[in-house]
Amino acid sequence: MKNALAFALFFLLSLKAFASYVLIPMDADSQKNHLKAYGITYWTLEKQLKVKWLLNYRGGSFLLPDTESIQKECQIRGISFEVISNTMAETILEDISSPSKNMEAVVLEKAPKIAVYTPSGKQPWDDAVTMVLQYAEIPYETVYDEEVLNDNLLLYDWLHLHHEDFTGQYGKFYGMYRAASWYINEKKSAEALASKLGYDKVSQAKLAVALKIRDYVIGGGFMFAMCSATDSFDIALSAEGIDICEPMFDGDGSEAGYQSKIDYNKTFAFKDFILERSPLIYEFSSIDMTRKRNVSKTTDYFSLMEFSAKWDPIPTMLCQNHTALVKGFMGQTTSFTRDEIKSNVLIMGETKSNGEAKYIHGIKGKGFFTFYGGHDPEDYQHRVGDAKTELDLHPTSPGYRLILNNVLFPAARKKKQKT
């Protein structure tokens, strides 16, 4: 009898030792396709399997259950992976849990449903987020003004804002492109859509959309925005009920003394900014650093901040990378003037020497927002009509990893942020 019990115990212990996990390493040396690694993690969540995100362990690795289908998908997608025993996994998790280690294991529970705010007819390569979602094979749906105003955002966990102008000034492209056919056509389309939705002006329609997005975040949504969608969103909120548009944009003059009427209490991230009045200048306000930065392409890098993984897992998740120094890139809104960022907003990526923030995050109500300056992390100065970025040439892009960190963020089992 004793021998039988001993054998049974040995058998169970052996099974435990030989049970295995799939480790997706995310450090610089071990992973050949960081971007698609996020896709396989999302795919695993879609199968209703839980994943552990190992914050600050080998570049923010993922620990997946070991199945034949997961291994096969990794091979098909060209993702580096390691099969490790249950004993090895427990050793790694024990090491991560040590109070002396700035690491944490966060459980990812459910694949978030993703919406991208973008007008119909836009190609995926017009926007870095849609481009990397397609490359990583992460599914998403598109919404625009009509869907937002009809409360369709309630169907989604995560929303990305296209490089949009929420102020009704058509991206401030007037000075350079007012005679271009694409500008004329887009202006007509925007006016027709505003009219269809029951608004006299595009600025009024865009404000209504911005307010719906604000309410979505306050109610618990996750919002991610890049380039001009960042500052133009806050400007629109701050100018609620104030006409800041010149005649070429909305058919009548702007409101006298409108700068003094701006309400910074209504914004998500920014304060004390000065609006750019001239319709000929390709700029919304003093928030953006593009015209002030004096940084050459060869020296343009920003640093990711380090947070406590155990005490502040949210910003730690959003900053996971295989390098702390990321190449800079430009956009209509390239980066943010540090002095014009509210004190309750976390700066997660910055260029200290230039007094600019590149990557910021905050809480609004029950929800979260992240603003990321610039247009395309692997196209330094993207211009209208430029060819799309081929992500097959940049499978380990640190700049694109920051986008995908935000995509997976809503899947995490929430822990209260301490700071």
TrEMBL record:
The entry's keywords: Signal
Origin: domain of life: Bacteria
Signal peptide: 1-19
Keyword Signal carried by entry: yes
Protein name: Asparagine synthetase B
